[in-house]
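Predict the 3D structure for this chain.
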Amino acid sequence: MHISLGVKESMWYLNSGCSRYMTGDAKKFSKISYKASGHVTYGDNNRGKILGVGKVTSSSSTVIENVLLVEGLKHNLLSISQLCDKGLKVTFESNHCLICCASSNEVVLVGKRIQNIYMVDFENSDFKSILCLFAKKDDPWIWHKRLAHIHMAHLNKLAKKKLVNGLPNIKFEQDRLCDACQKGKQIKTSFKSKQTVSTSNPLELIHMDLFGPSITRSIGGNYYALVLVDDYSRYTWTFFISAKNDTFKVFKKFANVIQNEKDLRIKSIRSDHGGEFQNAIFETYCEENGISQFFCT
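Done. Predicted structure below.
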């Protein structure tokens, strides 16, 4: 079979002529056992040497087990017969194909027709649910997801001590990265420090934020802290308050004192969209006193 469609390396061909999942790209395997175990014979009677067998994992957490690594094979092949052996059924339409669980008829995977070939792109697939190309009961990564993305070492302890009903007694290995865990642990890049001050006088802009509620109550019986920072001088005031609805009262008192003390007027304030700042009372006060109110997006 000669195929020249210019498809991506992540595409897998749905093939009714092959009896096993197979690929010639060793980089696709997340786990592989290298051992010579015979040959596969192609439709033109040429043969390819089997170099090993293992597990293929995509960036979308799709896992296929018992995949053959075949020397010189230029394409990735999905065996339709092997899909059916796993309790799936494959239905072909004019421009796509559906892979469904035979028992529930739930669509598991949608393939695309490109010219006269049906293909599946594992890196950018139209998944309806987790791809069940093998039994889910003994899949460590399914249990990892079911139990709130717990570390594999802890799963081994749970299984060994039989602390979770139904948890299989299998070896839980960290043989690849969980994309959800990886994304969840990523942090945002911090903003670069400003080299220039955008304001020209004190009280021209006041930054405000409310911290709390804290777990421990302060000696004065407060759970919150209102922090105000002058943009020009970077001078900071901190007020401890007992409840969020005291925020406006504390700010109003602060504004009266600081404006009289400095003989300057507060021109603008900036805060987040918290209800303690974005409300009718704050809005009315700012309008009456000529203060511009800005919110961080």
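The CA atoms of residues 90 and 261 lie 79 Å apart.
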